[in-house]
Amino acid sequence: MKNKFIKDLEKHLLLVKNEKDAREMRGYMKNKFDFIGVKVHVRAQLLKYLYPDHSEEIEENLIEIVYELFEKKEREYQYIALELLKKNIDQIYKIEHILLLKKLSELKPQWDTIDIFAKDILGKYLLKFPEMTETIVNLMNNSNYIWKIRTSLLFQIHYKEKTNGELLFKTIKKFKNHPDHFIQNAICWSLHEYSKYEPKLVNEFVKKNNISQMKKLCISCVESKKEEFH
Hints:
- This protein has 13 helices and no strands.
- The chain is mainly α.
């Protein structure tokens, strides 16, 4: 049964739908998903407006609501589901929720949701339970599934000086010749972020492992992160 929050959310999203933005957003995502045409700043304002009236319902039924939003056709619902998880992050930061996180990583995965999941949800979970990190990373890396591999490369993006460089470099070495653009892009992004805190280590690693040929892609990756469309 559809809960009140989702009904209210649907109604308000349709009130601010924008066909031009929907076409642009579909095109940006290579027509893999439908869009209502509600960009990130409008969604943020809408969620801020709706949340106080539905906070109790959301917090009591968070996982059910998240799954229901992921079942919807339009991509904005998945973005809002992830925002709800980020807003109520403590609810899912219990060690027994690792299976929940695994399932979330497999729901309609593409870079737009996987990147949020990796850095803002799984990354924070593994900071709280660092003893789980190596096991989870190994499981992801042995899956041969590009979105899990990308997650294993990006979950430390916000770790700054807490980054486990040894684990990051080990993962990069395993996939440095992977043919998929999204893996190569994630390698560049993770190295760029880590280099802000350990420039010498990163430079030595890049030279030693012949990753310098990726320079143009790395520059492109950094530039693309300056503006997020969704």
